Each structure stands twice: as C-alpha cells, then as structure tokens.
Amino acid sequence: MGKGIPTADAGPTTTGNGDIKHRSKRDQKPRLLLMGLKRSGKTSISNVVFRKMTPSDTIFLDTTTTIQKEATHTFMDFQIWDLPGQIDYLDRSFDAESIFGGVGAMIWVLDALDNYMETVGHLTDTVFHLQQSYPSIKYSVFIHKIDCLTEDLRDDTVRDITQRITDDLYDVGLENPPISYHSTSIFDSSIFEAFSKVMQSLVPQLPVLESLLDTIGASCHFEKVYLFDVISKIYIASDTTSVDLRAYELCSDFINIIVDLSEVYGWHQETDFHEGEQLAALQAHGAESYVNNIKGYTLYLREINRNLSFIAISKDPAFDREKSLIDYNVGMLRDTLLKVLDYV
Ligand SMILES: Nc1nc2c(ncn2[C@@H]2O[C@H](COP(=O)(O)OP(=O)(O)OP(=O)(O)O)[C@@H](O)[C@H]2O)c(=O)[nH]1
Questions:
Q1: Do the beta carbons of residue 119 and residue 41 sit within 8 Å?
Q2: Which of 176, 186, 311, 317 has the CB geometry, 3.0–4.6 Å to 48, for a possible disulfide?
Q3: Which residues, 6+ apart, have CB-to-CB distance to 333 below 8 Å?
C-alpha cells in the first residue's frame, strides 16, 4: 500500500475522527478536491465559501500541511478536500486511491499573478494521469486572484492559460478533456458563481431542473430564476439564460437580509406551533418574501425547505404576486424535486 498524507478534520461541519460509523457513511458522498500550487488560494476559497470567512482575513491563513476535509450537509451532502500545495500527488509511492477514488470533481486553483507555466505543467500532468484511472472526474480550472488584473489583462490571461492547457493536453493525446474554466476572486461573487457551476456538474438531474426553471421564468415573467442553497449561497440550478453576476449578487444580498431578519424575528416552529395542521400547511407553502422596486428590480424568494429556496428576479419594478401564477409554478418545482431527486 502506498504512503498517504496526514489528514485533518477541522471545524464543526467537518468529518469527525471519533465516529467511525458516521465517517464511513460520509466518505461515500461525492468528493470535491481543491488542488493547485502553494499560496494559490485553495484554503481561502474553502473558508470564504463554506465558513463565511471575510476575504480580507485570508491573508492570515497559514500554509496547509495536512488534507483539510470539510463536509457540507445541504442540498447535496459532499466533502471538500483542500490538498496541501507542496506535495507531488503523482509520486507512485502515494496511495492514490485514498485521495482520488470517489472524487466527483477536481478544482485546480491557478494563481493568475504567478508565472503560470509551472502550474499549467502540473495541472496537465495530473489530468493526464488521472484520466487513465479515474475517467469520470470532472475538472474545473479556477483562474484565480483575477481582481488583481486589469480588465484587458484579465481576458488575455484567461485566453492564454486556456490555450496552453488545451494544447498541452492535445499533445499527450487528450483531445476534449472534461475541463471548464472560470475566472475567480474571493473579493466578489465570481467565486460563488464558479463553485455553483462545479456543484451543478455533480447533479445528474440538472437538465430537468434547468428546463423547469426556464418554464417558470417564462410563465412568471422573471428575468433570472435560481434554486439557491441558502447557507452556502451556491445555486444548484438556474434557468439557462446567460450568467448574470449582478442578478446573482442581488439575490445573494436578498438572502442575507432574509436570514438576518429571520434570526431576529423568526421563531422555532416546533415550540410555537402546537396545531399539527397549521405547521403542515406552513411547511407545504414555505416562507415567502418579495420586494418591489429595488434598484428597478423585483426580487422574489420562496422557501422550498430549510436549505433550499427558489429565488427569482424581475425587471418589472411592480411585480404582481397574485397574477404571477407563482403558487402553481413553485408547486410544480416541489413535485419535481420530490419525484426526480427524491428531495424536499
Ligand atoms: N488578491 C487576491 N488574493 C487572494 C485571493 N484568494 C486568496 N488570496 C490570497 O492568497 C494567499 C494564499 O492563500 P491560501 O488560501 O493560503 O493559499 P493555499 O493555496 O491554500 O496555499 P497552501 O496552503 O500553501 O497550499 C493569501 O494571502 C490570500 O489572502 C483572491 O481571490 N485575490
């Protein structure tokens, strides 16, 4: 058996060492790897997205020396493994199966400010080798720290990196590698947008959800509709209109306000509702909120369950909820989530 690297489980949502039964069950959940050279930004990304760390606080992070495992229990239970950047995972003495077996997606974090020739070489070697033994892994390259580049330089850098990786892989015989590219920064919503796309690649029923969200958007006259994981702010599906960072930001801010308000004014349903019927009715409907005319937009949120909310944005500043057919459409969404995903 090959050597392994020490692993560390950190934080409240992280897999615990003590509970072996619990742990082995979680280890079967889809795994997502964060890889890349030292100081590329892997731990910062994991902390900002999943631990709500303020981006500016990431400058105090130490180098990671052990695998950090983060387990999230939201719409989809999955593990994120943050791998130390200084280790050569292709070294034959490594127990590769313990790291790469069961991986659904790998994110390669590439520091756009670095001399990226070195990391492009590591990345293409890694993809090439893993493709032989683990062909189902999906790869995403985060061209990261993009906030430090000017608009023009950004486009050139992204184009150059994409081209180099594609050429290198072509040279070794990989013509259409399953790689997606995202420009990211922890200082804006691009990191959440990119992570959303990675998570969506792990949802086999995504086309069904997207087509349903397209239908809802059209019939209710929404410009953009999302299914949001409320805690992480990752959206697990949206309609298929083009990515709109501004719409994402407005929806994300809206969730923050709703969560803050419900922390102050919310109540614990089990203790306050003694009438079973009343509680069932509330759960079937789901909490709802909408605001008209925020910077010319209407925002609409409907809770599907504790984790998942339907959120839509309309350019009509005077959205009329009663005429919108929203109840019928959200009902259809709930039915689909239940039937197709066995979820809700
Ligand atoms: N400008 C900018 N800096 C970032 C961004 N993301 C991370 N950083 C900074 O990059 C530095 C390294 O971040 P880490 O998260 O520790 O990098 P890492 O890849 O986990 O590094 P190792 O643990 O050594 O493998 C920190 O100073 C972060 O503040 C970003 O999007 N933009």
A1: no
A2: 186
A3: 212, 213, 216, 227, 304, 310
pTM of structure:
0.83
Going by CA atoms, what residue is nearest to atom 27 of ligand 1? Answer: 59
CATH dotted code for 206-341: 3.30.450.190
pLDDT in tens, 60-100: 998 888 888 888 766 677 889 999 877 777 777 777 888 88
141 Cα to the center of ligand 1, angstroms:
15
Task: Write phi, then psi, for 208 (nearest 5 degrees).
Answer: -65, -45
Q: What is the pLDDT of residues 126-143, one digit of tens each?
A: 999 999 889 999 999 999
Relative to the CA of 65, which ligand 1 atom is closest?
Answer: 23
Nearest Cα to 93, choosing from 2, 12, 21, 194? 2
Q: Which one of 5, 42, 44, 150 would you pick to mutate in the ligand 1 pocket, going by the greatest count of ligand atoms within 8 A of its CB?
A: 44
Ligand 1: residues within 6 Å at CB?
36, 38-44, 58-59, 61, 63-64, 84-85, 144-145, 147-148, 185-187
| 7-200: CATH topology | Rossmann fold (3.40.50)
C-alpha closest to that of 76 among 232, 239, 243, 256:
232
Q: How far is the CA of 180 from the centre of ligand 1 (A)?
A: 21
Mutate to test the pocket of ligand 1, among 61, 63, 182 (most ligand atoms within 8 A of CB): 61
In ligand 1, the atom with minimum distance to the C-alpha of 148 is 1
DSSP string, 242-256: PP-HHHHHHHHHHHH
CATH 3.30.450.190 positions along the chain are 206-341
